[in-house]
Write a structure and sequence with these properties.
Elements lengths: L1 E4 L2 E4 L10 H5 L3 H80 L1
Antiparallel strand pairs: 1-2
Length: 110
């Protein structure tokens, strides 16, 4: 029985090469089956390499997204701090303007 475990290939009778013997050579279609198994093994290996490359790509993409997300958080925090400063400045200017208007009104009355 052929088993595939985490990219490793093993069988109950050690390997497909151990199946070669005069007896197995005499079985009709044995070589065809061996070629099919070998082709599937190669295809599986190629698919595994492709999967590993895709996993690596996704991991790199996630790292980039995480970095951008952190930068956005920093920008958001900075903008919030600036907005608070601007609000304080606006209130200060509004208060001064009110004071200046009162001074103008007092001058007019004097």
């Amino acid at each position: 029985m052929l088993q595939i475990v985490a990219g490793e290939h093993s069988s109950d009778s050690s390997s497909l090469d151990s199946w070669s013997s005069p007896i197995t050579e005499a079985i009709p279609g044995f070589n065809v089956v061996r070629e099919i198994v070998e082709n599937h093994r190669k295809e599986l290996s190629a698919l595994e390499k492709d999967l590993q490359a895709r996993v690596k790509s996704v991991t790199e993409h996630r790292e980039k997204v995480s970095k951008i997300d952190k930068e956005l958080e920093d920008v958001h925090t900075y903008l919030q701090a600036d907005a608070a400063k601007l609000e304080v400045m606006r209130n200060s200017l509004a208060a001064r303007t009110q004071e200046q208007l009162q001074e103008i009104m007092q001058r007019k009355q004097s």
